[in-house]
Design goal:
Keywords: Plasmid. By secondary structure, the protein is of the alpha+beta class. It has two helices and six strands, in the order αββββββα. Strands 1, 2, 3, 4, 5 and 6 form a six-stranded antiparallel β-sheet that branches. Helix 1 packs antiparallel against helix 2. The chain is globular and about 40 Å long.
Length: about 100
């Protein structure tokens, strides 16, 4: 799913603030870059895998897990979903990097 659909879905699910993180996901084939959207209560609510040729698009997920303090997640920035247009523009800007 694209940025606009992701933001609209998160808003419709009642999320008000989320945070964009970057990290690595280990697979049988090694590791890949992945971006996570994490809710205010710490649940991972969306992910975007970096596959060969680009990003896969956003996928909703419900991972109510705590992230260990030693994890390699790096916070990119917080998104205030009450300002929909700024949230979409922020993800568009990030995707252009």
């Amino acid at each position: 799913m694209g940025h606009k659909e992701l933001i609209d879905t998160l808003i419709s699910e009642g999320h008000q603030k989320v945070t964009l993180f970057c990290g690595h996901l280990r697979t049988d084939d090694g590791a890949m870059n992945v971006h996570f959207i994490i809710s205010e209560d710490g649940d991972t609510v969306a992910r975007n895998l970096h596959e060969a040729g680009g990003y896969s698009g956003w996928t909703l997920c419900d991972w109510p897990v705590s992230h260990p303090s030693g994890s390699n997640l790096e916070e990119i920035w917080a998104l205030n979903l009450s300002d929909r247009e700024v949230s979409i523009a922020s993800l568009d800007l990030f995707a252009g990097w």
